Amino acid sequence: MKLTFLPLAIGLALFVGVVLGQQQQPGRAADPRSMGGGDCRDNSYNCAETSNPIATPDTVWLEEMTWMDVRDALKAGKRTIVIPTGGIEPNGPWLATGKHNYVLHANCDAIVRKLGNALCAPIVKFVPEGNYSTKAGHMGSPGTITMKEETYRAILEDIARSLQTHGFENIIFIGDSGGNQAGQKAVAEKLNAEWSGKTVVAHIAEYYDYAGVAKYMADQGLIKQGQSDNIHDDPIITLNMFVDNPNSVRFNERVKTAKATINGVDVSNRARNTELGKRIVEFRANVAVQAIKKAIATKGKPTN
Fold first, then answer.
1. Measured between alpha carbons, how far is 119 from 70 in angstroms, rounded to an integer?
2. Of 179, 185, 74, 59, whose CA–CA distance to 122 is shortest?
3. Domain 62-206 belongs to what topology?
């Protein structure tokens, strides 16, 4: 019996040793130079001022960066961060439930690159979508994931406080779904009141304006919608998703089965879809950037 448990005991001892090596060892004073998950005294790569040993990748997404990449970006003046909120919900027979998250992957990237001094926080994919007890809202459809409003707001607040701790001076909320807006506005107002302009928190209501995007595309003669198909889908959202990932709108399958239309708009041409999708992203990014700059200038006061 003792022999049976010996390998387990050895493995557990090794695991504990590794964990203690990564964390603060008992009786050892904390080293204020330590960053990166380890102790500066054990490895220079755990030291706050150690130079990044490799080139920084061409990304604006916080989750794709190392801690050194983020540190260096902050030092270079990238002190604005955009927190995008999406959702998991039903969207007709063609669109993936992560619709808003695909949209934000394209749009947040474009927004912060236009700002030039900004990064994108990871997309908040879980938002208020309805009531799971009564199956109200989108919760009547399988695959939907909802958050209670208080949970959602607590998540946003914790994210904002984390980013403020590390030196971000402008914290921006953009939401791609209707249920996201009230929580973003409330958290922004709360934190702005607490931080008194030292850190700006802004809810960008102008970003969530699909009607405005549709009008712009129609006025430009790019998309003229016909009779509605009466499903949770339209050409603007389809093309915005397409430019990020054609599979998210089941492009190949729709073309193969002659289902590549939405509200009378043909979306079967890959090259044309890409062109229109980029125009949509460009327009939405320009609107957001203008509103973000105004919000920063007014210290987070409502922009409309």
1. 9
2. 59
3. Rossmann fold (3.40.50)
